[in-house]
Amino acid sequence: MTNFDIVVVGAGPIGLAFAASLAASDLKVALIERRSMADLAQPAFDGREIALTHASVKILQELGAWDAIPCSEKSPLRGARVLNGSSPFALSFDAPHGSAKPLGILVPNHWIRRALFSIVREREHARVFSGCKVVAAQVNPGNAKVTLSDGRQLTAGLLVAADSRLSVLRDLLGIAADINRLGCSMLICRVRHELPHHRIATEWFDHKQTIAMLPLAEGVSSLLVTLPANEVSRLVVMNDADFLAEMSQRCHGRLGTMSLASSRHAYSLVTTWADRFWMPRAALIGDAAVGMHPVTAHGFNIGLGGQHRLAEGILTAWGKGTDIADPSLLRHYETRLRLSAAPLYHATNVLVKLYTDERPLARAARHVGLRLGQHLPFVRRGISAALGR
Ligand SMILES: Cc1cc2nc3c(=O)[nH]c(=O)nc-3n(C[C@H](O)[C@H](O)[C@H](O)COP(=O)(O)OP(=O)(O)OC[C@H]3O[C@@H](n4cnc5c(N)ncnc54)[C@H](O)[C@@H]3O)c2cc1C
């Protein structure tokens, strides 16, 4: 048996950020992760380019992770355009007028994980148990206990689930969640292209497909195509030439001639919302609490803000010498996360429903919706400000 103050299950970006956030204390933290240590130290490119808000950049700076990401991996986003079907009309989001700041900054997910892991590894307070899973969990009034797949048992004052939207720990703790498997997948790859992107992202809700183009280096974009899962499985294994020909056709030549600049990656789309984000001696963070649809690019941002607030509450309790799993602290964390995440989570789900509905009424409604958005400046400015926060 090994005793810790906090056991975190899942060393993804949010579990790692949480462990890094606690480094200011002498709390003993255990991180349990099914991936190997080599994979944690040097994660491979996974296709995801995370659009960071300014609030997220600030948290990563405070944690010391921002400077561990090379400048060449940070791509400022000047604006975004939302298109509907074949209409030439675009709803535009730009950085607030007069602001020198970009709307957000795109950073590859594997670089965020690598930078956060390097911070956690430098600190003495956290011990990483890699290559193993949690197979049993129990919470008692005084502590929590987990059993690992290799038979080891760990106890802690607080158990934290950061093990993805399909969290096993959440199930082991008996916390229910709304899990919505959308039946479609997202295919992602980087492409080199002929036409300039001007650092503008494009989200294009076309008939029976959604395409996003995220601007990276000059002449390079991340291409994201959402389609029924079987279509994505077909595209993932297609040879490069046929794949590029089909992508050029699907993109209607918006980027000009394209060539592949990375491997292809596929993600099945699942959204989740846990019934509760805490129970005595346990809390859920990141996607284990709220698993957003990626179309509005906010899952990581919400998870990072959430873990930051939970860590702040814990550090305050630790500073005062009170219980780091005090129910009022965990309840406060839940309330604030619900308030910040619920509007975006539900609005994103409504948006996805409206923009993937092929019925004529829905198509007309989204056309009207985009024009209305463009002519109501407070809607556009409000969304731009929320993105750039
Ligand atoms: C295609 C795509 C694009 C996205 N783009 C954006 C974006 O632009 N902006 C944004 O804010 N968000 C974006 N997101 C969302 C973002 O990637 C997630 O919100 C973020 O990865 C959540 O981090 P996490 O640490 O909570 O979970 P995860 O990243 O899922 O990490 C969970 C970790 O737990 C480990 N694990 C799982 N089960 C166990 C177990 N039983 N035992 C031990 N370890 C376990 C896993 O190996 C993993 O390391 C995107 C998501 C996708 C799919």
From TrEMBL:
Looking at the keywords, is Transport present? no
SUPFAM superfamilies (UniProt xref) = FAD/NAD(P)-binding domain
Give one Pfam hit by family name.
Answer: FAD_binding_3
Report keywords, A-Z.
FAD, Flavoprotein, Monooxygenase, Oxidoreductase
> What sequence ranges are listed for the domain FAD-binding?
5-341
Q: Which cofactor does it need?
A: FAD
Q: In which pathway does it act?
A: Cofactor biosynthesis; ubiquinone biosynthesis
Q: Which domain of life is it from?
A: Bacteria
Q: Indicate whether Flavoprotein appears among the record's keywords.
A: yes
Give the family from UniProt. Answer: Belongs to the UbiH/COQ6 family.
User: What protein am I looking at?
Assistant: 5-demethoxyubiquinol-8 5-hydroxylase UbiM
Natural source organism: Mesorhizobium argentiipisi
Q: What is the lineage of its organism?
A: Bacteria, Pseudomonadati, Pseudomonadota, Alphaproteobacteria, Hyphomicrobiales
